[in-house]
Structures are given as structure tokens and as C-alpha cells.
Design brief:
The chain has four domains: 1-70, no CATH class; 81-140, no CATH class; 149-221, no CATH class; 281-308, no CATH class. The strands form five sheets. Strands 1-2-3-4 form a four-stranded antiparallel beta sheet. It is of the alpha+beta class. A hairpin with a 2-residue loop joins strand 11 and strand 12 (245-248). It starts with 24 loop residues before the first strand and ends with a strand. The chain contains twelve helices and 14 strands. 29% of the residues lie in helices and 23% in strands.
């Protein structure tokens, strides 16, 4: 047996001189002698358990009561504990019995994410603890995420619609909310409902267009449309009917390759729609032709008929 030193300090209390604990009893352990340094620099004591086994215990663990026996007490206690090894509770799978704290058995468990943790058995059985914390993180993330489309182009369009209809400070409020244009309650309360009804934008060049400009943003009155399509569906669009066909001036202009200004000018002068859309030929002087003042010919001085 190693003799107890006289001039060293007990690691359990560095401010005091060395305390010889030989003969002292700590729970089921009786100190029978000094065991030297353990774990590199801590004072150790050789102890005899009530069961007859001997064990070396760190001085701090003896004094603090962290070790009360050679291990037989835990072994005996484990025999009276309902063994739940291998059972699954939530995302936890019980690996083995760990220890007892405050008269409650604790178990080493492995979460589905791979993390291991010691958990009180009562918390497992009551469902108070179901994971290492990853389940809570996922649930809170789902609650914040809801649709997972924040920052997308569709979400930005939805927010713009709400703002122009409800926010008097929006620069477009005078043309929407102030005119009585509203967004239906279903879309106002849920972006997911808006996407369910409208679907995703076909391209980055499409935005939401109201079919009837006197009505608000609601299912059945909205569609995805390009800027050109929307330009032909405004309150300012002027319609011209020729025969059974009705189109905006912009649409007639594109179809006939006729300038919009010309059509507007003719309509404003009271020209009938059929004549306003006629392509009238006009002369253009051929500036490159050499003109003989004495023998001026039409073919040399003028070009061919041109369409304006």
C-alpha cells in the first residue's frame, strides 16, 4: 500500500493541507489507504465496498458523493428497474441503462439523426422528450416556412397586389384601392390559396391581369398575362369594331402594320372605322434620281407607291 504523503494537498480542496481519509466511510465505501495520483494529478483512495470489492476512487468523487459504491449499488438498482433497452420513444431508441439521478433511472438513447443523449426514463415514457431537439427545430421551421416560397417572383406579385389595394401610402393605391379595387379575403389571408387558384407564372414576363377591370383580384377574374396582353385590357384601351371583329387600336395596328398615331388621328377626325383602317398609298420623292428640268419624267422623279 502506498503511504500517505505528509506535505501534499488534497485535490478536493487545494487551499487546505493534505487530509488523510483512511478509515472514513462514504456511503458504501470505506477508505482503506492512499492510492496515489489518478487521472494524472488528482488524489486517489483505495476503498472497500460493503460487497467486499475494492476500488480506487478519486477524492473529489468520494467527498461529493458522486461515487457511492464499487458499482454494485447501480447493478442491484438496475435489477429493480423496468428494462426499456431497445425500445423506441418518438425519435429516440434506448441503447442501455446509464445511471440513476435523484432516484430516477436514466438511459443512453440514440436519436434518429444520430445524436446520442442520456435521458430520464420517465420523460421518455410520458412523451415529454421525443428527440434530441431536432424534431422541435423541424416543427418550428415548418411553422415559419408554411409555403416555402418567400422571396419568389409569385410571392412578390402577391404582396404587391395586397399593398396596392390596401395601403393608402402605396403609389398605385389611387388606381386600385381608392377606386374600390380589392383583393378577396381568401387570397388576402393566404398566399398558398392564391397559388392554388392561379398556379405558377408561365414565364418571367407574365404578371396578374384582371379580366374585368371593374372588379377586384379574385378567382375567376384574374389570369397570368404578358405586358402586351395587359396593355390591350386597360380602361384607356380604345376599341374599334369592323364587321363582327372588335379589337383595340394597338391590336389593329399590329395586325395591319399601320401606325397607331395614324389610326388615332383618323378616328379623332371622324373617319369611319372601315376607312380609318385602310392602307392609303402615297408618293415618296426619289432624292437620288437626277432630274432634267426640261424633260421631267414621273418614273425618274418619283419612286414607287409606298405604304404609310
Amino acid at each position: 500500500m502506498i503511504p500517505a504523503p505528509k506535505n501534499i494537498r488534497d485535490s478536493s480542496s487545494l487551499r487546505h493541507n493534505f487530509i488523510d481519509r483512511t478509515g472514513q466511510k462514504f456511503h458504501q465505501l470505506v477508505v482503506i489507504g492512499y492510492a496515489g495520483k489518478v487521472n494524472g494529478h488528482r488524489t486517489g483512495w483505495r476503498c472497500q465496498c460493503e460487497c467486499g470489492n475494492e476500488v480506487v476512487v478519486e477524492s473529489g468523487n468520494l467527498v461529493a458523493g458522486r461515487q457511492k459504491s464499487c458499482g454494485c449499488a447501480l447493478h442491484q438498482m438496475s435489477k429493480t428497474i423496468n428494462d426499456i433497452t431497445g425500445q423506441k420513444f418518438g425519435r429516440y431508441t434506448v441503447i442501455e441503462y446509464a445511471d440513476t439521478l435523484n432516484k430516477k433511472a436514466r438511459w443512453l438513447c440514440r436519436c434518429d439523426c444520430g445524436r446520442e443523449k442520456i435521458v430520464c426514463g420517465s420523460n421518455l415514457r410520458t412523451g415529454l422528450v421525443q428527440s434530441c431537439g431536432c424534431l422541435k427545430d423541424e416543427r418550428s421551421g415548418d411553422a415559419r416556412r408554411t409555403h416555402g416560397m418567400s422571396g419568389t417572383r409569385e410571392h412578390a406579385i402577391w404582396r404587391t397586389i395586397k399593398d396596392r389595394c390596401k395601403n393608402p401610402k402605396n403609389k398605385s393605391y389611387a388606381f386600385y384601392g381608392s377606386r374600390g379595387i380589392t383583393i378577396c379575403q381568401r387570397w388576402d389571408e393566404s398566399f398558398q390559396a392564391f397559388i392554388d387558384d392561379m398556379g405558377m407564372s408561365p414565364t418571367d414576363h407574365h404578371s396578374v391581369d384582371r379580366i374585368d377591370n371593374s372588379k377586384g383580384y379574385e378567382p375567376g377574374n384574374c389570369k397570368w398575362a404578358t405586358a402586351t396582353e395587359q396593355a390591350n385590357n386597360t380602361r384607356r384601351s380604345r376599341l374599334i369594331t369592323v364587321g363582327d371583329v372588335t379589337k383595340t387600336i394597338s391590336q389593329w395596328s399590329h395586325e395591319l402594320n399601320l401606325r397607331v398615331g395614324i389610326i388615332y388621328d383618323r378616328i379623332n377626325r371622324g373617319v369611319p372605322p372601315e376607312e380609318a383602317l385602310e392602307i392609303v398609298p402615297s408618293f415618296r420623292i426619289n432624292k437620288s434620281a437626277k432630274v432634267n428640268k426640261q424633260s421631267l419624267t414621273t418614273e425618274a422623279a418619283f419612286g414607287t407607291w409606298a405604304v404609310t
